[in-house]
Amino acid sequence: MAAVGPEQFYLVNDRMAQDNWRERFRLLSRSGDATLVYFDGQKARVLVKDLAYPAGLALSADGSRLYVAEAVAQALRIYARDAASGDLTLERTVKLDTAPDNLNVDADGVVWIAAHPRLLRFIAHARDARERAPTQVLKFDPRKPEAGAVPVYTDDGTQLSAGTVAARWRDEFLVGALLDKKVLICKPNP
Predict the structure, then answer these.
(1) Phi then psi for 149, rounded to 5 degrees?
(2) How far apart are CA 95 and CA 45, in angstroms?
(3) Which of 9, 20, 16 minimizes the C-alpha distance to 57?
(4) Residue 160 in domain
(5) What are the strands of the beta sheet with 88-95, ordered from one edge?
(6) Range of the domain at 173
(7) Cα 93 from chain centroid?
(8) Torsions phi, psi for 11 (to 5 deg)
(9) CATH number for 178
(10) Contact, 76 vs 93, CB < 8 A?
């Protein structure tokens, strides 16, 4: 969910397939039918109908862009946002080569992306905390879109298993996880 006003917000709505076979097909084909909805304070409208397991939403620092993480599509969608109507226009899709999870935007407008380089390991970890899963953090600077998303942290699950959120903090960044009872405080390389 991403709030844009006291009663206005965007949210993603994913629905599971009716049986395991269909769900596996959706995962393998990287297809999606999840929706992105806008609530204007009075009514909800479906704006997008083809998201592949949306995992995170975030607004740009100035509110002009909405970022959507698609785990199965391994992509970050960037939408231009009309503040008056809530309407969205797809600006671009950034390929990530990893399954993004939650998003955070820092004061400079940089998007911090927690990701799962081995999605099936993440699913196994979600079912059983003893199963370790890799963690990855990327950052995307919309002022340098040609650079794409740049990895800034990768771990095999030893330090932190299945990291689900990353955020800039002072001159460092924090990484939190689904089931680990700790947070990493990381210094970026110069």
Answers:
(1) -90, 135
(2) 27
(3) 9
(4) yes
(5) 54-59, 65-70, 75-81, 88-95
(6) 53-186
(7) 13
(8) -150, 155
(9) 2.120.10.30
(10) yes
DSSP string, 80-135: EE-TTT--EEEEEEEE-SSEEEEEEE-TT-PEEEEEESSHHHHHHHHH-TTS---E
Give CA separation, 54 vs 46, 51, 68, 154, in Å: 14, 6, 7, 22
Q: Widest CA span of the chain, in angstroms? A: 48
The domain total for the chain is 1
Q: Would 23 be classed as within a structural domain?
A: no
What's the pLDDT tens digit per position in 14-27? 765 455 655 555 55
Write phi, then psi, for 119 (nearest 5 degrees): -60, -40
Task: Tell me if 158 is assigned to some domain.
Answer: yes
Counting residues of the chain whose pLDDT is more than 90, the rounded percentage is 76
Dist. CA 161–CA 136, nearest whole Å: 10
Per DSSP bridges, beta strands 99-105 and 111-116 are antiparallel
Q: pLDDT tens-digit profile of 58-117?
A: 999 899 999 999 999 999 999 999 999 999 999 999 999 999 999 999 999 999 999 999
Measured between its terminal Cα atoms, the distance across the chain in Å is 33
pTM over 0.85: yes
